[in-house]
Amino acid sequence: MDDLVLLHAFPLDARMWDVPGALTPSLRGHGEPDLDTVAAQVLGVLDERKLDSVVLGGCSMGGYVAMALLRHAPERVKGLVFVDTKHTADTPEAAANRHAMADRVEREGVGEWLADAMLPNLLGPDASDTARASVRTMILDQRAEDVAWWQRAMAKRPDSTDVLESLNVPSLVLVGEHDKLTPPDVAAKLAVTLMHSTSERIEDAGHLPPVEQPDEFRFRLERWRQQVGL
User: Fold this and answer.
1) SS3 of residue 215 by DSSP
2) Domain range spanning residue 49?
3) What does 4-50 look like in DSSP terms, one character per residue?
4) What global pTM score does this model have?
5) Which helix (DSSP H) or strand (DSSP E) does residue 137 occupy?
6) Residues 6 or more apart from 67 whose CB is under 8 A from it?
7) CA atoms within a 13 Å half-sphere pointing along the CA-CB vector of 229
8) Tell me, what CATH number does 47's domain have?
9) Which run of H or E residues covers position 80?
10) Tens-digit pLDDT profile for residues 146-194
11) How many whole angstroms separate alpha carbon 57 and alpha carbon 42?
12) How far apart are alpha carbons 194 and 161 in whole angstroms?
């Protein structure tokens, strides 16, 4: 899978993926918050690895970064994997909530309060203790400046409908059965926007199927790649 690139969710890092052989960069923000900055970082990684064309996947925020990359270099992507993400911009209320969290993180730092606030929305009701401990650890390991930057960058991201409708590559849309942040009906709308999409629901998972159901996630991914010849 040396042509598979997976971009992580907020506020986690590359450890959320358990996919041998995949390229899984940890995203870092700098300068003015804008997901185009992170997309440029990913393109830089592809250039370093001499990867002209990849299967690009992203979970939640990682999906937003993938869409930003598609705005600049769609020719670098031969297949897409969107996991618990959406193609629409934030509502004013959602953007305001992101800015409020960014402000608090800058005041108080990353702490248990952030993990306690995020975990109920990130994991399904039947998530294992191992998954909960893993996600909590990843959250607590993040730098406050990155968490604030990501939130502000996501708050200003544009609607990506126009970008996705123009694509002519195979796409896989996966969503956790119990996802509260981007539930199955949101995933269905994303799938309809894509020209050549396969949409599947992963049972007993919330917003992070690759963490909650890693074996099932890998199985769905590998099956789809075989089906579409990637």
Assistant:
1) helix
2) 4-228
3) EEEEPPTT--GGG---TT-B-PPP---SS--HHHHHHHHHHHHHHTT
4) 0.96
5) helix 129-141
6) 87, 157, 160, 163, 164
7) 1
8) 3.40.50.1820
9) strand 77-83
10) 999 999 999 999 999 999 999 999 999 999 999 999 999 999 999 999 9
11) 12
12) 9
